[in-house]
Amino acid sequence: MADIVKYGIIGVGMMGREHLNNLFHLRTEGVAVVAVADPHLSSQELAQNLAQSFNWPLKVFSGHKEILDSGLCDALIVSSPNMTHCEILMDIISHPKSHHVLVEKPLCTTVADCKKVIEAAKRRPDILLQVGLEYRYMPPVAKLIDIVKGGTLGQIKMVAIREHRFPFLVKVNNWNRFNCNSGGTLVEKCCHFFDLMRLFAGSNPVRVMASGSIDVNHKDEIYDGKVPDIIDNAYVIVEFENGSRGMLDLCMFAEGSKNEQEISVIGEIGKGEAFVPESIVRWGSRVEGRDGVKTLKADDDRIKYEGLHHGSSYLEHLEFLSAIRAKGIQAPAVELQDGLVSVAIGVAAQLSIEKGRLVTIEEVMNE
């Protein structure tokens, strides 16, 4: 077997522990989590207990600088709160020892911070940086991406993504209740969907129009005297350079939904759909009509752990490990530029809601 790749996890709240679980299920591929960093004792203890159940001895640090200076890790997972990503990434990039990085979405909470990280990373060709936009790997979504790339639907004209789900979960110190920490709902949550729109459209975004508000959730919550300001529903329209359009329909008080995500991609000659968590994919052509629509139950035999995201985090880790082992020959599956554009669309959408007008991507890219 190849040398064991030693991982450290920075931020072991709910998502950090999810990464720990995924990496344990990847242990036969030659990986081990050897260290974690988190300032919160409760998160440290939960991570330690989980690692103990795996018989993985963990070195525990209270900050990311200590884990960097320890020299224990080959690769780092950054799954700390969104507003900490920029500082942590800059410290990793400027550290003398090279550490490969998988950073949770969003890359950063602002376009300026994303660009700062991208510029700094250019000076470190020895470091692999992958962004955690793992919805690409959900089996029904991955199958739909293959159908689109295969040309079955023709030139894509419209992408509609509906996410109807439960409210945001409670996180450490309730950091995700405020735009200043998360980047806002359309950055924090919806960067996934803007990334998928861009993949399906095969083009870059140019203009965004959005309408959204706080209508139901978190209105009776108060933290340090402040009421949460994160929106709980929105419609977002994204126009792309090649003339295709995307639309997001988001509702975070829709627990009574059979599927959490419903994706529809329409080309000149056909239409494809994906449903999560049903894991169903449908596609058909204009010529064959309704009777010719094919239905497939999507799965992926490589998945050994479903976790919180239907196996997509497991597949993301497989891709990341493969890129690490390729030693610079293989680009990360999701690059920093992908992270930047997904954030930029979210920022433009938030601004469109705030200002009540159309916002160009150029406007937010030059902020």
UniProtKB/TrEMBL annotation:
InterPro entries: Gfo-Idh-MocA_inositol_DH (IPR050424), Gfo/Idh/MocA-like_OxRdtase_C (IPR004104), Gfo/Idh/MocA-like_OxRdtase_N (IPR000683), NAD(P)-bd_dom_sf (IPR036291). Residues 6-131 form the Gfo/Idh/MocA-like oxidoreductase N-terminal domain. This is Oxidoreductase family protein. Signal peptide: none annotated. Coiled coil: none annotated. Residues 148-360 form the Gfo/Idh/MocA-like oxidoreductase C-terminal domain. It holds the Pfam family GFO_IDH_MocA.
